[in-house]
Automatic annotation (TrEMBL):
SUPFAM superfamilies: MOP-like, P-loop containing nucleoside triphosphate hydrolases. Keywords: ATP-binding, Cell membrane, Membrane, Nucleotide-binding, Translocase, Transport. Residues 25-270 form the ABC transporter domain. It holds the Pfam family ABC_tran. GO terms for molecular function: ATP binding. Residues 1-22 are annotated as: Disordered. Gene3D superfamilies: 2.40.50.100, Nucleic acid-binding proteins (2.40.50.140), P-loop containing nucleotide triphosphate hydrolases (3.40.50.300). InterPro entries: AAA+_ATPase, ABC_transporter-like_ATP-bd, ABC_transporter-like_CS, ABC_transpr_MalK/UgpC-like, Mo/tungstate-bd_C_term_dom, NA-bd_OB-fold, P-loop_NTPase, Transp-assoc_OB_typ2. PANTHER family: MALTODEXTRIN IMPORT ATP-BINDING PROTEIN MSMX (PTHR43875), TREHALOSE IMPORT ATP-BINDING PROTEIN SUGC (PTHR43875:SF15). The keyword ATP-binding applies. This is ABC transporter ATP-binding protein.
Length: 393
């Protein structure tokens, strides 16, 4: 656990507000490699460029090994990059050109670890106070101020009554709140989260992420949050960053990544989608192209430059965008954006039922609205709007 920059902390104690860009993060051409036992090198971070505006909730999303945790640790100063620059609030944290490399203590960022990193022999309030009582920090925080900040942080995360309890007496969810209270006790401009909810059960996880999101909005700090949980990422993020093999595959608002993924990788990783192989036939109309696909002929939205006729493309279709056409309402033969299929399997998900439907020799995931139940072997017609389809290379 580290502490925030003493300059904005002192400004807040005087009643002044920190600079508008105090929590702004700028990363340029960052690179980090690891060396295997056989001597070969692996690029963990491979030329990352990223800007996070002050007060933004930024989520780094991707599977294990994509580089998201390494990027967070480089920002925190727990890993040394090979090259590039990291700047926070206009202050250089790392720069190979000018040979700047601040220690974690000098960066003074709030951080919530996956393992919580709490002292088991200390009480809750002493754990939260600890970073403010180190030799370097004592000159910035009086005893009265430490007590005030600890009390406020514990009340903010709703565990004030646990102040005197030992860490060993707390549940996983309560320990997570202690770790969060410690990170915000300084009024930090930037708080880093390394998969902080992976060790709590599903119900508590939902509650805690809602609390983290509300606290970030209330306190206004910049959050950089690492997770592999798609639902968690979509709920929390102002800016969602999907990484692949140490590179940013796509960054933007969650809806942008969900509706207009730039690649099959993003389409498959964000939400439930199938990518149907297709060949472009030609322009169908303004912003529309016609394709021949492995499930039939389709018309697809193409708001940008239309791909050339004969191009091989992927058509992204989300499970919830398919609609089941009622018996008797379908045409005698499947028309454009209507396909015929057979139910092969189903899974009840509570809010909806997801079906596996075989169409043209391949399967599609279909999550239609409504409560109608479809039996295995049921033949049906599916329809999807052109605006709900998206092309990827």
């Amino acid at each position: 656990m580290t502490v925030t920059d003493s300059r904005p902390a002192r400004a807040r104690r005087r009643g002044a507000e920190p600079a508008p860009d105090a929590g702004r993060i700028v990363i340029r051409d960052l690179r980090k490699t690891y060396t295997r036992n056989d001597g070969t090198t692996v690029p963990a971070i491979d030329g990352v460029d990223l800007e996070v505006e002050a007060g933004t909730f930024c989520v780094l999303l991707g599977p294990s090994g994509c580089g998201k945790t390494t990027l967070l640790r480089c920002l925190a100063g727990l890993e040394e990059p090979a090259s590039g620059t990291i700047d926070v609030g206009g202050r250089p944290f790392f720069d190979t050109g000018s040979r700047v490399s601040l220690t974690p203590q000098e960066r003074r960022l709030g951080m919530v670890f996956q393992s919580y990193a709490l002292w088991p022999h200390m009480s809750v309030e002493k754990n939260v106070a600890f970073p403010m009582t180190t030799r370097r920090a004592r000159r910035h925080f009086s005893r009265d101020e430490v007590r005030e900040r600890v009390a406020k942080a514990l009340a903010t995360v709703d565990i004030a009554e646990l102040a005197g309890q030992p860490i060993s007496a707390l549940s996983g969810g309560q320990q997570q709140r202690v770790a969060l209270a410690r990170a915000i006790a300084f009024g930090s401009d930037v708080v880093l989260f390394d998969e902080p909810l992976s060790n709590v059960d599903a119900k508590v996880r939902v509650q805690l992420r809602q609390e983290i999101h509300a606290l970030q909005r209330e306190l206004g700090f910049t959050a950089v949050y690492v997770t592999h949980d798609q639902e968690e990422a979509m709920e929390l993020a102002d800016v969602l960053v999907v990484l692949k093999k140490g590179r940013i595959e796509q960054a933007g608002a969650p809806r942008q990544l969900y509706r207009t993924p730039v690649s099959r990788y993003v389409a498959d990783f964000v939400g439930t989608a199938d990518v149907v192989e297709a060949t472009v036939v030609g322009v169908e109309g303004p912003g529309l192209v016609a394709v021949t696909s492995e499930v039939g002929d389709l018309v697809v939205a193409a708001p940008g430059e239309a791909p050339a006729a004969g191009s091989s493309v992927g058509v992204v279709v989300r499970a919830e965008d398919w609609r089941v056409v009622p018996d008797g309402a379908a045409a005698a033969a499947a028309g454009v954006n209507e396909v015929r299929g057979t139910v092969r399997d189903s899974a009840y998900l509570g809010a909806a039922t997801q079906y596996v439907v075989e169409v043209g020799g391949r399967t599609l995931r279909v999550r239609p609205q409504g409560s109608a139940l479809l039996d295995e072997g049921h033949a049906l017609t599916l329809r999807v709007d052109a605006s709900d389809l998206h092309l990827v290379p």
